[in-house]
Amino acid sequence: MSKDPDIVFVRDQDAPLLPPPLMEQGLLGWFNQNILSTVNDFSSPGAAFRSVLMAVSTLAIVYYSIAVLWALVDFAVIEAVWSDPDGLKRTICTTEVAGGLQHDGWHGACWPLVVAKIKFLTYGAYPSEELWRVNLAGLMLIVGLVCLMFDRMPYRMPIGILMLTVYPILAFILLRGLGEGIGLPVVDTRDWGGVMVTLVVALTGIIASLPLGIILALGRQSDKPVIRMLSTMFIEFWRGIPLITVLFMASVALPLFLPKGVTIDNLLRALIGVTLFASAYMAEVIRGGLQAIDKGQYEAGKALGLSYWKTMRLIILPQALTYVIPGIVNTFIGLFKDTTLVAIIGLFDLLGAAQSAINDAAWSSPVQAITLYLFVAAFYFVCCLGMSRYSMRLERKLAKKDR
Amino acid sequence: MAKAKKTSTMQVSDELIISMKGVNKWFGSFHVLRDINLNVFKGERIIICGPSGSGKSTLIRCLNALEHHQDGDINILDVTLDNNVRNVEVIRRDVGMVFQQFNLFPHLSILENCILAPIWVKKMPRAEAVDLAMSLLERVKIPEQASKFPGQLSGGQQQRVAIARALCMNPEVMLFDEPTSALDPEMIKEVLDVMVELAESGMTMICVTHEMGFARKVANRVIFMDEGQIVEQNEPEAFFNNPKSDRTKLFLSQVLSH
Lengths: 403, 258
Known about the structure:
Distance between the termini of chain A: 54 Å
Oligomer: heterodimer
Number of strands of chain B: 10
Order of helices and strands of chain B: EEEHEEHEHHHEHEHEEHH
Strand content of chain B: 15-25%
Helix content of chain A: 55-70%
Largest sheet of chain B: 6 strands, mixed
Largest interface: A-B, 20 and 26 residues
Largest sheet of chain A: 2 strands, parallel
Shape of chain B: globular
Order of helices and strands of chain A: HHHHHEHHHHHHHHEHH
Helix content of chain B: 25-40%
Shape of chain A: extended
Number of strands of chain A: 2
């Protein structure tokens, strides 16, 4: 019986290797696949309706995005006032109708206001002659962080340890001062303000909450019931109260519990409250990472004779923390912005300082508030975006290692 | 299948290394190990086989305290396994284990996987640990992979690294928990060759496996387990050619048919 010719096939010549069709590659390809394909299906009334809907919404989104962006650029750059050489203050930022120099209908940012207030926004009421101390502490921080970010930096580990142990003490001595004797007069935390306070609260909260969160996460997974119960109670307690309440309680309720005459510095109360609050969130993020680790990793560590803590430190935590970098950075970013709540206990962070500047009558104008809030928003946006980008870089670097 | 040369190093000594007396274990109310009595002498190569769920893995996991037995005595290398954490850690240093899923540490290179335990448990200096690891990686025939990561290696290579990692601690006993069950067929041979070489060098081995060819060549004793009990044990030739229990006969007919 002869074979059916369609079954037998042997290739004698290779099919040509071609580039993809023009409509499928590059920018045209992206447009074709993502936009055009959503609007060109008219095979049925339902599909036609969907296509028209997609086309209308795509156009609407594009239009409004451009409109909003344009409004922002118009306000902040094009119509903005950039300098105030004659010291006119409010007159240069208000329209003629209100007694100023600008034409009617003007609406733009008043950047000279920000420039004039920049010292207050950065340092608060810190005495001018002692500002060098804040600048020095800030410089050491920047240098330390930059060193730690370079992989090939020698002595990275000692630098890291120094930054975590010695720097906080140095920063404390510099910022608060010890006394007239060594040329560092005490500057009470009541006079601190602006970006300085934001960074102090945020950095302390971020750096201190990570190890505390790790310990709590490990405690919650412990096989000893007492430790597990205590960890769970701690986490649920601090997660159940809003941060603003924590700060409020720390400020108002804490003095009632302390013996007479003993006071804890207001900023310190804020730092402790923020740290404990953040560590509860951090613990849950890390616990998610711990649960994602295959049980075999624990067993392999045990089978090799490693103790519990060595297994955690060398095998489990490096993997778990890598998994949850997005979650950790997310918590950090949230914490950074939550620092604005310290206003409730009388500390002037950046937002507090900005709000105080808004009440300055010498600069009173319709754009006074908007300009300052825009500046504060830009500052937070840049910082949070920076953290976000760095975390992506970190994730990519660590992922390369695994493959 | 490499033929194991029955050299003089494959002699069994009369030094008792492991003794299990009346060991019982429960998972909740499920009686997973029933009245296990087993004596293991230095130099023995024991193969444990049986249907899944028979408790074979649980048995060897009790030997290095990955599982805790609720009844009976386990005495291994002159240490009694009980709730004492110190004892457990001492035992684990001298008992090596190779897992079905390899369990290599993915965030460390092959070399770092091997030197981790000697450095952190035995406090060996790093240079010495590296030399030891490299010599063992050569023994399992993959020294050139030392700076790669586990994710870049094939299954057979990963399992050989796992064997080298366990050997870096210079154990007295090696436990194998179905080492080739997760491997593609073409990679099983390379791992079994390493295990045969290990047996020839005189290592005491307890191996849970379905590789009957390996059992025939290398084992001095084959144990059949079913439903948590040791049903039959014998020398390999006698075990395979002349099984005595009906359950053993049934199991062998299923395993050896294909």
